[in-house]
UniProtKB/TrEMBL annotation:
InterPro entries in UniProt: Integrin_alpha_Ig-like_2 (IPR048285), Integrin_alpha_Ig-like_3 (IPR048286), Integrin_dom_sf (IPR032695)
An annotated GO BP: heterophilic cell-cell adhesion via plasma membrane cell adhesion molecules
Cell compartments where the protein resides: Membrane
Membrane topology value: Single-pass type I membrane protein
Location of region: Disordered: 472-492
Species of the source: Penaeus vannamei
Keyword Calcium (UniProt): no
Protein name as catalogued: Integrin alpha-PS2
PANTHER family given in the database record: INTEGRIN ALPHA (PTHR23220), INTEGRIN ALPHA-PS2 (PTHR23220:SF133)
Highest taxon above the source species: Eukaryota
Polar residues composition-biased segments: 479-492
Length: 492
């Protein structure tokens, strides 16, 4: 616990003000109460109309107060919140008028010019000599209001006033300020799937040159190759809302040699929470593309609920402004962070297309679905001449911190956290017919092996005499047959 004290001198008494919190930071998104511990100790003569004025930052609301210590039996502290401007104006006017009458305008330090909320505690009239009062002021934070106000710290200003005449030059000692650092803590979970799921094969004769012949140009997307779709599910598990998140999708559009690899059919389908810039590499050959369907990709009800792209068309002017924004705030990135971000945005062994989206803010417990639809360029895979090819896309999330507004408008702070995830498609270059024929060979071979085993078992059982019929031996069979009471000549 951090704690500090300021001592001030008044003509007829000593007064000591204490201010402390039960923790040193506020984790954005938390709704736990903020407890401010403060109090006044009178080491001199009686102090009349002693008050504590607590100026409260935006996004924080006074909830209640507790008296933790009171050595003045006849004094009952009372704290109340002033949240309306008219109440503050009336308090200021009354304080200024009283100060003019007493020729001591400095007494209004705690009430004059306050624009935010404030809490006023009457701690004694009088506060007897040698007595002290300790209070706990409980505040309720509002994470949404703190994000809206772009606060990086929560300042609490505590001022003690009284009607006792104060020594000249000691007025500024009546004020104590305590700041709570606003900390962003978020855990981003990135999940991804590829469709087709797992390794898959294709028949080269159905696509590209195998279908159209050498030198012919493809005109429809189905002529390029089998469809490949990657789906990302990004969830902010909290506890904090990210004030701003930059989403970078790295898509393997071409090989390093410039040959098409995963041909983008349309702009990625992103849930409405994110706003993305348009992608120049989408269907750059102008192919006729069939309508997309994601029924086979639905793995949870929430995936089906997030439908509809929210891409912005970036004009040359807006693109220039965006580049200017990056240039202006690029110096704010620490060297290590910049290097790590550059490493995460590396395309690896492909010539990738970068898609950038912005989420502001990225709420805790919310998720974003990103679907990317493409066609595998079979002619390029055949050109590589490999039996197996792995093609990977990458998603990078950069969590931005908050910064105060300046003359140029609101700005964002450094990249504070980075998360990344990948989805891989495994392609085998054997034809589908060969695979099917192998399956039939296995099936027919299994049937023949079963018949052979049955014949072998039958032969063994026959050799053991299992199939031979044995009649029982009976003495009556050796005796001559009677005629059932009749002779052979027909006489009885």
């Amino acid at each position: 616990m951090s704690r500090f004290w300021r001592r001030e001198r008044i003509r007829h008494f000593w007064r000591e003000i204490g201010v402390a919190f039960d923790f040193d930071e506020y984790v954005l998104g938390s709704r736990d109460n903020l407890v401010l511990m403060t109090g006044v100790s009178n080491e001199g003569e009686d102090s009349f109309q002693t008050k504590l004025h607590v100026r409260v930052p935006r996004g924080v609301t006074f909830s209640k107060f507790l008296v933790t210590s009171n050595t003045a039996d006849d004094v009952t502290p009372i704290c109340s919140a002033l949240t309306r401007e008219d109440d503050e104006e009336r308090t200021t006017r009354r304080c200024v008028q009283e100060a003019k009458e007493s020729e001591k305008q400095e007494a209004c330090f705690g009430a004059q010019g306050i624009k935010g909320n404030q809490v006023v505690c009457d701690v004694g009239n009088p506060l007897p000599s040698g007595k002290e009062i300790a209070l706990q002021l409980v505040f309720q934070p509002n994470p949404e209001a703190i994000i809206s106000a772009r606060l990086t710290v929560l300042p609490f200003n505590v001022t003690a006033t009284s009607t006792n005449e104060e020594l000249h030059g000691t007025e500024l000692d009546n004020h104590v300020m305590k700041e709570l650092q606003v900390t962003v803590r978020s855990d981003i979970d990135i999940k991804g799937i590829s469709w087709p799921d797992g390794a898959f094969d294709y028949n080269a004769s159905r696509f590209g040159m195998g279908l159209l012949g050498e030198g012919e140009r493809v005109t429809h997307d189905w002529q390029v190759g089998p469809e490949v779709t990657h789906v990302y599910d990004v969830t902010n598990q909290g506890p904090s809302d990210l004030p701003q998140a930059q989403i970078f999708l790295l898509w393997p559009t071409r090989t390093l040699g410039g040959d098409p690899l995963l041909y983008l059919l349309e702009e990625p389908d992103v849930s409405s929470e994110a706003v993305c810039h348009s992608v120049p590499d989408v269907n750059y050959l102008g192919l006729t593309v069939a309508e997309a369907t994601y029924d086979h990709l639905i793995t949870a009800p929430e995936l089906a609920a997030q439908v509809g792209s929210s891409f912005l068309h970036v004009t040359e002017e807006s693109a220039a402004l965006h580049a200017k924004h990056r240039t202006r705030h690029g110096h704010r990135l620490r060297r290590s962070q910049r290097r790590r971000l550059e490493d995460e945005l590396s395309c690896g062994p492909t010539n990738c297309t970068r898609v950038m989206c912005t989420v502001s803010p990225f709420r805790a417990k919310s998720n974003i679905i990103i679907r990317v639809r493409s066609r595998l360029w079979v002619d390029t895979i055949e050109k590589l001449g490999r039996s197996e090819v792995k093609i990977t896309s990458r998603l990078v999330i950069a969590g931005m911190g908050m910064a105060e507004e300046d003359e140029a408008g609101p700005s964002w702070g450094d990249v504070e956290q980075l998360w990344a995830g990948t989805v891989t498609t495994l392609v085998r270059t054997g034809p589908e017919e060969h695979v099917r024929s192998l399956k039939w060979v296995v099936i027919v071979g299994s049937i023949l092996a079963g018949l052979l085993l049955l014949a072998l078992l039958s032969a063994i059982l026959w050799a053991l005499g299992f199939f031979k019929r044995k009649r029982p031996q009976d003495k009556s069979d050796s005796e001559p047959l009677n005629g059932n009471g009749f002779y052979s000549n027909g006489k009885s």
